[in-house]
Amino acid sequence: MREDLLGLELSQAQAMLSREGIVPVVTVTSAPKKAPRQGGSLRVVYASDDGAALTAAAFLDPIAESRKG
Question: Which of 56, 10, 53, 7 has its CA nearest to residue 30?
Fold first, then answer.
């Protein structure tokens, strides 16, 4: 697993991989499955060894959300 990508915002991870010539397949997950996704930023929770596959999940940032309102 590419631990250097874990926790990064999805766009940051994709930019890093793009510089390496890799365009990953992205899977978005949530708990429970099929639950509506509202808000939050997508962060990488899994990255394959070669970076060709990423799994991302939405994480809420209460501080950022409070600044919007």
Answer: 56
User: Average per-residue pLDDT in the chain?
Assistant: 87
Handedness of CA 6, 8, 13, 14 (dihedral sign): positive
* Closest to 5 (Cα-Cα) out of 14, 19, 31: 14
Residue 23 corresponds to which tokens in the numbers above? 């365009």
HSE on the CB side for 3, CA within 13 Å?
Answer: 0
**8 A C-beta contact, residue 15 and residue 51:** no
Q: How far apart are CA 2 and CA 32, in angstroms?
A: 25
**Average pLDDT of the residues in 11-29:** 96
Question: How does residue 60 score in pLDDT terms, banded at 50, 70 and 90?
Answer: confident
